[in-house]
């Protein structure tokens, strides 16, 4: 059972009681000692595998090299054993906030891990790096780690269900800071008061604009959730030392809702588990088969299906126009409704191209598939026939697809669209797709074997076969892991791989 919490702005003179504040309600959920159900445990294992997959694939990419170099510039802090970095030897550790930073960048870089879409966007797997880093530093076992991750997913996804950030051009990681802080609080068994202060600080320090996902999208897109995770670790540290946070952080007359979101007259209904209710939110999230923005997943599947069935559609000489009728979000964020000329620029960054559904649809249509590296190379983006086809593709908002995007009915909720292809001979091809093939309601829902296949595919170029098997054996025993084994829950690159990657110099 969930409880809906009415959240509105309060004048300072109203003296909103602490126990009535959303941050306190979040802290109460985090402090609830309820056990984690087996289905949730199984999905947490899947997502740890998923995170390791995409981190492995990005180990030598420039943003990861920079973030890892920063992290390795900092020694293990006092008070614990430190935390692992993806790719480095297990005995080479750093301070947990810097491990959260570097590992968060590695997980996020390829835009290839899990997602949950509702009133706001989210990648709830971003909770895992900071919670895992603190678990390793403080010597927590697998059971404690499971409980912490379940809380991180629950809080972020419940906030995402209720509070829209992007409408006000606030980046979605503003829900991640509080959720990661809450998850760490659960992991450590902290009291409600301490978690409350950490949640408030984490929110206060992680609100930023959505320019990180607009126009010429930069490498900061991968760093943004990592920064939120790092801030969450630091917020918990300060709260444990007795330091307090701005309050009421959400409801105050100069707080987040009043000045960053819907304003002083705003009201939200935020669903949170009742006391004693298991945290099940992770079961409503979904991962990616393709390395691209989630709202493009179903459209990639549709494009590859259309291209294979009718190869003539791949030749721009045969195509007059392609219109993708889809939701408001898809049209305005990754479609032509964003009015970003960069989404049609063959010299645009990889980060920009993976947020351009016209580009993605053109390449998937022509190639009959999608590859996390090959589909984004400058050569692929600049191919003349692709550019010609790409520039014939636009999106249009369809009220019905917008309604389905926001539906509370999981059997109706959809992230796809209807595609109309007008050919030069006057004929048309029309087809549609509601959810991605890998979605729980899709043609080929992801199960454990799919997560393992994805991991093997992405890890084989950079990990030794024995290391792949070591990690898979360890992670699938997650709830029974000792603290020492949790300290080994990372991936180690092939000898020389990390050393050969350029480590740019900075201040540290």
Automatic annotation (TrEMBL):
InterPro entries: MmgE/PrpD_sf, MmgE/PrpD_sf_1, MmgE/PrpD_sf_2, MmgE_PrpD, MmgE_PrpD_C, MmgE_PrpD_N. Residues 21-267 form the MmgE/PrpD N-terminal domain. Coiled coil: none annotated. Residues 290-478 form the MmgE/PrpD C-terminal domain. Gene3D superfamilies: 2-methylcitrate dehydratase PrpD (1.10.4100.10). Pfam families: MmgE_PrpD_C (PF19305), MmgE_PrpD_N (PF03972). PANTHER family: 2-METHYLCITRATE DEHYDRATASE (PTHR16943:SF8), 2-METHYLCITRATE DEHYDRATASE-RELATED (PTHR16943). Belongs to the PrpD family. This is MmgE/PrpD family protein. It comes from Microbacterium paraoxydans.
């Amino acid at each position: 059972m969930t409880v809906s919490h009415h959240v509105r702005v309060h004048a300072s003179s109203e003296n909103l009681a602490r126990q009535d504040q959303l941050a306190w309600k979040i802290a109460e959920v985090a402090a609830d000692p309820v056990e984690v159900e087996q289905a949730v445990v199984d999905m947490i294992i899947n997502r740890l595998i998923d995170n390791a997959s995409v981190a492995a694939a990005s180990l030598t990419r420039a943003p990861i090299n920079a973030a890892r170099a920063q992290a390795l510039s900092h020694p293990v802090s006092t008070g614990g054993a430190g935390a692992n970095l993806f790719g480095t030897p297990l005995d080479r550790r750093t301070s947990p906030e810097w491990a959260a930073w570097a590992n968060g960048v590695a997980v996020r870089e390829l835009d290839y891990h899990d997602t949950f879409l509702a009133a706001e966007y989210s990648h709830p797997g971003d909770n895992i790096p900071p919670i895992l880093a603190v678990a390793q530093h403080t010597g927590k076992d697998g059971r404690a780690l499971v409980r912490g991750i379940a809380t991180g997913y629950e809080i972020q996804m419940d906030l995402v269900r209720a509070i829209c950030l992007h409408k006000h051009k606030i980046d979605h990681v503003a829900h991640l800071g509080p959720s990661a802080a809450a998850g760490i609080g659960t992991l450590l068994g902290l009291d409600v008061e301490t978690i409350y202060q950490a949640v408030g600080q984490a929110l206060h320090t992680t609100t930023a604009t959505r320019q990180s996902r607009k126009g010429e999208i930069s490498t900061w897109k991968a760093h943004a959730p990592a920064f939120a995770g790092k801030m969450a670790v630091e917020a918990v540290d300060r709260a444990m030392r007795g330091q307090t946070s701005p309050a009421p952080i959400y409801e105050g007359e100069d707080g987040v809702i009043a000045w960053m979101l819907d304003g002083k007259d705003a009201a939200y209904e935020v669903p949170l588990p009742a006391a004693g209710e298991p945290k099940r939110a992770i079961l409503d999230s979904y991962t990616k088969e393709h390395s691209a923005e989630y709202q493009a997943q179903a459209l990639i599947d549709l494009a590859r299906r259309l291209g294979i069935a009718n190869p003539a559609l791949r030749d721009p000489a045969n195509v007059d126009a392609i219109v993708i009728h889809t939701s408001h979000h898809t049209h305005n964020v990754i479609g032509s409704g964003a009015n970003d000329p960069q989404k049609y620029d063959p010299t645009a960054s990889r980060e920009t191209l993976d947020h351009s559904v016209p580009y993605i649809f053109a390449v998937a249509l022509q190639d009959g598939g999608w590859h996390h590296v090959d589909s984004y190379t400058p050569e692929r983006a600049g191919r003349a026939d692709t550019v010609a086809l790409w520039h014939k593709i636009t999106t249009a908002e369809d009220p019905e697809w917008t309604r389905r995007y926001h539906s509370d009915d999981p059997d109706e909720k959809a992230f796809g669209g209807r595609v109309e292809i007008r050919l030069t001979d006057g004929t048309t091809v029309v087809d549609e797709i509601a959810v991605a093939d890998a979605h729980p309601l899709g043609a080929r829902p992801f199960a454990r074997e799919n997560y393992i296949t994805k991991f093997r595919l992405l890890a084989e170029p950079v990990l030794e076969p024995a290391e792949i098997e070591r990690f898979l054996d360890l992670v699938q025993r997650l709830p029974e892991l000792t603290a020492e084994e949790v300290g080994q829950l990372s991936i180690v690159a092939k000898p020389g791989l990390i050393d050969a990657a350029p480590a740019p110099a900075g201040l540290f």
